[in-house]
Each structure stands twice: as structure tokens, then as C-alpha cells.
Amino acid sequence: MAATGLSADPTEYRARLASQSDEQIDAWTAELLRDVVIRRGIVKVVEDFRHAARLGEREFERVFASGGGPPAVVGRDAKGRLVVPATTLFALVPGIRAQVADARQRLIEYLLENFDEIVYV
Question: Could you tell me the pTM of the whole model?
């Protein structure tokens, strides 16, 4: 597991993530977004990403649009929860990089908060 940056526990995983390049962090985040949406749905992904990245709804929309996501597709489900089409999740990683100075740390937090998902997959 050392070659992939993965580990048996979140503490070690955090340390390994810190030594990875931005490109690797971005790739792993994009892959995790894709994998979680397949297993758990778009609501879970949007909520988890917003929480880990400390983004309010308007900030999330700005990040999404900055990364190339079409603003017109941001919407709400029947329960009023913020959603975007799963096929547009690609926009979150470059969007957060464009919008916040500490994007790397926020992406690492997303990976850490979903450590159990990574281990499951």
C-alpha cells in the first residue's frame, strides 16, 4: 500500500498525503468523487465535499462554476438538498484550486473524511 499513498489508518494516511504532489491529490480526489457517487449518490458526495472543503452553498456553486461546471445545472433534489449532475463532478477539483488559497488542504480533508470509503473501494 505504501506505493499508492494508502495506509491502514487515517493518521498514517494524512502523513502520506502530505508528501504527495498536487497532481496526485487532485487525481485521487476526482477518483473518490466518482467512486462515492456510484456507491452512495450525488447528495452524499455534495454534502461530504462541502463539509470537508468548508463551503457554503454559494461558495460551492462558485467553486463548481470556476472549475468548468455549468451553473445552470446546479439544483436541488425533492428534499431541497443541493445537487449537481454526477457527470459534472470533474469541475470541483479545478474549481476549488481556482477559488481558495488552501485548496490542497481542503482536498486532503475530503480524502481523509472519506477514508472509510477508500478502504471499502
Answer: 0.88
Task: Please provide the average confidence, as pLDDT, over all residues in the chain.
Answer: 91
Cell digits of residue 77: 433534489
Q: How far is CA 30 from CA 22, 64, 102, in A?
A: 12, 13, 17
Tally Cβ neighbours within 10 Å of residue 39: 12
What amino acid occupies position 112? Answer: L
End-to-end CA distance of the chain: 14
Of 98, 88, 96, 115, the residue nearest 13 (C-alpha)? 115
Phi, psi of 112 (to 5 degrees): -65, -45
Nearest to 25 by CA among 35, 14, 36: 14
